[in-house]
Amino acid sequence: MTKAIFFDIDGTLVSFQTHRISPRLLDGLHRLHDNGIQLFIATGRHRSAIGPAADVFPFDGFITLNGQYCFTRDQVLRSNPIPPAQIAQLVDLLEDTAAPCVLLEETDTYTVNPDPRTELFPNQLNIPLPPVASPRRALGRKIYQAVAFFSQEEELAAGSRFFPGLEAMRWHPDFVDVIAPGGGKDHGMDAILAHFGISLEDTMAFGDGENDLPMLRHAQIGVAMGNADTYVKSQADYVTGSVDEDGILTALEHFGLL
What we know:
alpha/beta
């Protein structure tokens, strides 16, 4: 029996076109909650950028930064920053290549080496671009995630030299989320489930990006959105409609939860 559902934000709960949860879906989330199902955010976004979901619905907990920082309304459940040695390597890379990147700490976020690609944040995701800082600001600080603006083609060309010792997770064709080894939304799920005393067998998860794959595979039922790419869909237990078709509602009705 499903007792907990985990939702990605962009392309899953929130449309890339409207940047909000549709009224029909919002009503469905309230009905799920009224039926005793606990609902959780599972996103690559920073906690300062989850407003399009968190400001309109009382989610029970939050997996942010791809599982690296997880919390409830009043308690931090998981904190897994990038190790200092890898931060030093990342800073060297950013200084040598002048690659644009956004660095995310627990509360602060900042942009290094800005160029036109970083305008994707405000233009496509409706997320304000953080203030600009030197890459060396990251030294000696707890960095949970780096958003690096490398295309899929650049990533393939770099091969094993692409962020060595770190994990790169992509949910947009023009940038990757770079996190510490052992990260991922599945680890965030485990922290949430342990806190609430819920079994993994009683979970469902929704997502559309490659960074959602660990979560979709980990949940008892993993649902890929219709706007996901072919590989993500192939790894899911069920494929539903797109975010703009309220695909979450279609799947919830299919599984008898609404």
